[in-house]
Amino acid sequence: MKKLYKKNEVAFALVWIALYVIIMNIALQFCGGFDNLETKTVWQMLIPVICIVFLAIAATLWILKNGLAKKYGLCCFKGSKKMFLWFIPLAVMSCTNLKNGVAFSAPVLVSLLMAVNLAVGGYVEEIIFRGFLFKAMAKDNLRTAIIVSAVTFGAGHVVNLVNTADTIGVLLQICYAIVIGFLYTIIVLKGGSLWPCIASHVFVNGSSVFALERGPFNNFVAAIFGQATTQLTDLLSALLIMIISGTYAFWLWKKA
Fold first, then answer.
1. Residue 40 region, left (φ>0) first, then alpha (ψ -120 to 50), else beta?
2. If pLDDT is split at 50, 70 and 90, which confidence band does 39 have?
3. What are phi and psi of 102, to 5 degrees?
4. Do 92 and 244 meet the contact criterion of CB atoms below 8 Å apart?
5. pTM exceeds 0.90
6. Which one, 30, 37, 179, 210, has least CB within 10 Å?
7. Rounded to whole angstroms, how far apart are CA atoms 14 and 11?
8. What is the DSSP secondary structure assignment for residue 107, as one 8-state letter?
9. What is the pLDDT of the chain when averaged over all its residues?
10. How many CA atoms within 13 Å lie on the side-chain side of 53?
11. Tell me, what's the pLDDT at 121?
12. Using an 8 Å Cβ cutoff, are 134 and 10 in contact?
């Protein structure tokens, strides 16, 4: 890996992206994908958890071993105390998937293992997309690096189509993942640290396992539009995330 890194950092990043996608999709096939979590066993869920934890440890150790923690953002956020106010919109966006409340829809241990799988996946994705890929491309063209990092991060979620029957939900996920990817990239650019994005990404992914599909937000939508549907509320939720994240990202990029 080190030889590839020294020769071509973009290729190095693409190899990590490929490894992540291939390994995690194979693991998810073994556990039967994301659907029907209540039917999964602990042993089924252990497979993807072991795989993602292995990738997280391997990437982190490689960075630390080669003295690249500062380059790839595994360091403290830079800036004044005032700049930490940036995280308020980030925190709001991170909590939107809990708008209807929380509950365990599957056995507790199975739910926790899925939450660990998704949360650690968020950590790995930040290292790969905002670390390896963004830093490799930013040396040549910063604007292109920002766009590619955001788009590839969102497009990477297309693999979820293999693991779930909710096609519309995945397409919405791809759209708002691109916008969130843009926001995360700008935060890394301005603050030099991955940790704010890691914290947000880990929380969003991990908490999604316990998020209720129906609740106060559905009732609010129904009061305005009549009988609310899951697709309508998912669409409005995605739009809310995109508006908050997109507006916030452009402000940081131009003003901060």
1. beta
2. confident
3. -130, 155
4. yes
5. no
6. 30
7. 5
8. -
9. 83
10. 11
11. 92
12. no
